[in-house]
Amino acid sequence: MDLLDLRVEVEDLYAEYVECLDDGELERWPELFTDACLYKIIPRENFERGLPLALMLCESKGMCQDRVAALRGASVYAPRALRHLVSNIHIKAQTADGIRVQANYAVLQTLNDEPTQVFNAGKYIDLIVRDAGQLKFREKLCVFDSVMVPGSLVYPI
Fold it and tell me: Per-residue pLDDT tens for 87-132?
């Protein structure tokens, strides 16, 4: 596979990732990960200092599925519309471990009776692998820029 074909496939994975989150199809979200995976939402300061504390941590696809079940059944939060904007998708390296990719993201949030606002912004640092012929995330680190933690961070970024 040449680099252009790989780039298109990687971009399609990112498009599917944000589409399922923005469209509220959360049950599709865990299917974009390998069974053994790492998903983390972590402040930039902690990431840069090598500190492990994260706002959200899932260490397997099963934990991602549990997160969705909690959102559907147990969490109480105001209805909202989310819109993820992903840019500067950069394939950093291809190794035996997989494809290292970095991209910028911004998440916009609109509550029913409020104007749209920037909810979260940062960068994705990802390890993508081919699993049963499809690209999937083995690691997805959502490194957000602000030191302020959104009080309503319940959804994956």
Answer: 999 999 999 999 999 999 999 999 888 999 999 999 999 999 999 9
Query: What is the CB neighbour count within 10 angstroms for residue 77?
Result: 10
For tokens 């909202």, name the residue: 80
Q: What is the architecture of the domain spanning 3-144?
A: Roll (3.10)
Structure-derived torsion over alpha carbons of residues 74, 66, 27, 42, reported in degrees to the nearest 10 = 100
- The residues spanned by each domain of the chain are 3-144
CB atoms within 10 A of CB 130: 13
Confirm if 80 and 108 have CB atoms less than 8 A apart: no
In angstroms, rounded to a whole number, what is the distance separating the alpha carbons of residues 28 and 87?
A: 22
